[in-house]
Amino acid sequence: MKVGLSILLILAVVLLVIGIETPEQSKVANPQSNEMTVCYLMERLKQYNGQIVTIKGTLLPIAKGQPYFTTLAPTPPESCPAPGASDRRAEIDLSYPDPYFLKNPPNGFQYDKNSITQAEDKITQVFRRNPNVSGFLVVVQGLLHVAEKGPAVPPDYDRHGWYPASLKVQSYKSIVEP
Fold it and tell me: What is the pLDDT of residue 2?
């Protein structure tokens, strides 16, 4: 009886010391291998600034009928405001690394040109078939950069639009036409 209690006590101490990871903790502890939604990330932007993250969302065109998809938004029914701008929907601006960035990328950034080319090809094919496509369900991975200041206040304006964060894309994990 004493041996059984001792083993249970030792096991309890070991579990307390090393901890037990819940799915929520796992998502935070290793964002590179775990998908986060746009809204989940918006609640924790500063925590992930400058890190490689994997985000699941809806890839939107710059304007209806345009073949350029550069904005990542929450996938319905998920919906959330942009941090610091409750009148705006949470969106992430997507960009791609230039040759200068790729010469000396940050640790952990692994550019997958094939996945990006395949995603671009799929977008082009779908757009040719349906110019009114409203978006794609994607899982995208890249380097997150959080905006240092909020949106412009009138009479000033944001010439290129304001986003609470931008993602330098390193790869597409999936892309699906909704």
Answer: 53
Q: Average pLDDT per run of 10 along the chain, which is 178 residues long?
A: 44 34 35 81 94 96 83 94 84 94 94 96 92 93 85 50 88 92
Which stretches does DSSP call E strand in 76-164?
Answer: 81-82, 85-89, 92-95, 136-146
Beta strands 85-89 and 69-73 are unpaired
From residue 9, give the alpha-carbon distance in Å to each of 3, 4, 79, 165, 178: 10, 9, 45, 47, 52
As a CATH number, domain 30-176 is 2.40.50.140
The β-bridge partners of 52 are: 143
**Domain chopping of the chain, boundaries:** 30-176
Interatomic CA distance for residues 101 and 171, integer angstroms: 15
Report d(CA 151, CA 106) in Å as an integer. Answer: 27
- Residue 39 φ then ψ, to 5°: -65, -40
